Amino acid sequence: MDPTSKRRRIERSPSPTYKLDGDGDDYEPYIPLSQRRQEKLARFSSLGVNSERQRAKRLEEEQEEREDALKEEERLREKARKERTLLIEAQEVQRRKATEDAKKSEGEKAEEADQEILEAIRSRRKLVSDLELAKGIHYTDPLTASWRPPRYIRERTEQEHQKLRDKYHILVEGEDIPPPIEHFEDMKIPEPILEHLRSKRIVTPTPIQLQGIPAAFSGRDIIGIAFTGSGKTLAFCLPLIMLALEEEKKLPLVRGEGPVGVVLCPSRELANQTYENVNVWCSALAREGKYPQLNSLLCMGGISMSEQSHVLSKGIHIVVATPGRLIDMLEKKKFTFNNCKYLCMDEADRMIDLGFEDDVRNIISFFKRQRQTLLFSATMPRKIQDFARESLIKPVLVNVGRAGAANLDVLQVVEYVKQEAKMVYLLECLQKTPPPVIVFSENKNEVDDIQEYLLLKGVEAVAIHGSKSQEERQYAIKAFKSGSKDVMVASGVASKGLDFNEVQHVIIFTMPKEIEDYVHQIGRTGRSGKTGIATTFVNMNTPEQTLLDLKYLLMEAGQKVPPFLASIDDPRAAQGGSLKGCPVCGGLGHSISNCPKLEETQRRQMASHRNVDGGGY
Ligand SMILES: Nc1ncnc2c1ncn2[C@@H]1O[C@H](COP(=O)(O)OP(=O)(O)OP(=O)(O)O)[C@@H](O)[C@H]1O
């Protein structure tokens, strides 16, 4: 028997009266036949009602399905109609654009394309970190400084300040620009430092110092652009030393405290050189015991931090660093930026646009308070300035000469030398001047080959490039600086910004693709007011666009343009386009769409930026 029907019957008979045997499982109460018939009838009739309902429901569902299908059909028809219209519209737009484009000159089209690229650059993120904003550090006014120019200078009129700027060809931009000061003595620099500078024949400020130092002493953010070898290092280090001195005088720093400020450099060599300068100036300050000793720390890859443990055991006033190692130290909490107020980037354009951008942003995120930010370089094209400016507070732009222009104290000679004749001709070229001479090549293997060749010919030469160990690099720089070696063969990046004593002659064995690199390379001579010669070898392998950049640069600097360069025509002129320089690299012979730096930037961004030649880390 079906157990459910049994249960049903049991439920329907809630009050069993008799139990014959067992526990009742087999028990079946008696139901009269008439009652059972009635129940059966009722069951059948209810079944009939259900099937009626189901049929109605099915019909309803079928109807709904039909309606849905009709709606879907209609929707698809509508979609197809719209798509056709969009397609037709798109075709019409294209047709219109093609007609408009046909009316435009090649030059106009090129300018439009340039604008698009510029827009893309503009849309890049600001240097200020999101973290910094999230931490609530938001300020709209520059830092307030206690330094004031001497009263007699403050009382001068703005016209008088401008006259002085004009005299030194200093261009400025910004609000409430502090006055230029013509004498170090009027800058209220401590006497021991002045005395040291005098001993190095640094007696009167260079134009970038004359305007940059008072602006930095006043607490202002700065974008400083000036020729290679024009004394930018002093312009950004002196204000940091003064700031550190002020802090130390207020409350001496003890172990675990500091730094007050940091100088960031794109290469180890530059960091090392800047650190040495800072150290010398700090020692000079403390020499007579009138001023406290300020401690500085060099923070870069390739040196062991245990060497610096004696500095870490005291308060640190100044850190000079390359980005990678600095981040490492900050992450390991070797020191903090809790009280750091000053951030300077040397060769700032390189730091921002060549792979270090994220590192810089990361470093900025460690600051816990308002800071003064300074960016210095010899080559900072307008667009990089604009980009950087967004991250600064009411910055003062100090510009001496066009950003990217060559130093006028360098006599530039460009010679056509066949590839196979270069080595032999190099020997001849070395006779042009007495040593020291720097020979530049873009290629590490070529650097090694040139050094080997020179050594074979009995020339005392050292070599430096990114694949050399830190010790080898330091040895080469030291030997060349001390004068024990006559020639240094170098790859471009490894020696950028380096200041060697009175280099007489720079020979560019292979012309770099980017004109900015050329400007930096020839800038190793003709420094601090002295004159120098730069000889550059070019040939069939030099890209025409690079030659055109070179031609315009020579023309701008009033140098002799050799006939083979003069005969190169500018394709932009033929297209009727604008002959403005490239806003990205400052090259005068091409527009942004052909910018070799932009290509290079993209390439480098794809590669790991920690591996850049000259390795910051
Ligand atoms: N006011 C000055 N008078 C004379 N010499 C100076 C003065 N200031 C700096 N110098 C010297 O000029 C040389 C170049 O200075 P520095 O290295 O700061 O140049 P720079 O502008 O940073 O160049 P680069 O762009 O190539 O890095 C140094 O040897 C420095 O001692």
Automatic annotation (TrEMBL):
Keywords linked to the UniProt accession: ATP-binding, Helicase, Hydrolase, Metal-binding, Nucleotide-binding, RNA-binding, Zinc, Zinc-finger
Leading EC class: hydrolase
GO cellular component, one term: cytoplasm
Gene3D superfamilies, per the entry: P-loop containing nucleotide triphosphate hydrolases
EC number: 3.6.4.13
GO molecular function: ATP binding; hydrolase activity; RNA binding; RNA helicase activity; zinc ion binding
Region described as Disordered: 1-30, 42-77
Entry keyword annotation includes Transmembrane helix: no
Residue spans of biased composition, Basic residues class: 1-10
Cited InterPro entries: DEAD/DEAH_box_helicase_dom, Helicase_ATP-bd, Helicase_C-like, P-loop_NTPase, RNA_helicase_DEAD_Q_motif
Descriptive protein name: RNA helicase
Species for this entry: Leucocoprinus leucothites
Helicase ATP-binding domain ranges (all copies): 213-398
Compositionally skewed regions (Basic and acidic residues) per UniProt: 68-77
Motif (Q motif): 182-210
Domain called DEAD-box RNA helicase Q: residue spans: 182-210
